[in-house]
Amino acid sequence: MNAFRDQGSVAIVSVGIIAVVVSIGVAIATAGAVQIASARAQSAADLAALAGAYVSRDARALGTATDPCETARAVAFDNGAHEVECDVDARGAVTVHVSVSFALGNVLRSARAGTH
Description:
The protein is of the alpha+beta class. About 60% of the residues lie in helices and about 20% in strands. The chain has helices spanning about 1-5, 10-60, 70-80, and strands at about 85-90, 95-100, 105-115. It is rod-shaped and about 90 Å long.
C-alpha cells in the first residue's frame, strides 16, 4: 500500500523544480531589462548634458541667443528619453534629468556638464 501512495510524488517534485527554474529565469530577465533601460537613460542624459554644455559655451563665447536646453532636449529625445528637464546655471553648466520607459516602468537618470 505505501508504494501506491508514493507514485505521484515525483510529479509534484518535478512541478516544484520547474516553478523554481522559471522564477529564476524571470528574475534574471527582469534584472537585465532594468540594467539595459538604466544604461539607455544614463547615455541619453550624458549626451544631452554634453550637447547642452557645448551650445552654452559657444553661446557665451559668441554672444548668441542659442538655447542650450533646446539642444539638450533634442539630443535626449533622439536617444530614447520621453521626459526631459534641463537647467543652465549662471556659469553655463547644464544639468539634465531624463526619463526612459521600458516594459516594467520608467528609469530616471541625471547628468551635468560644463563649468562646475
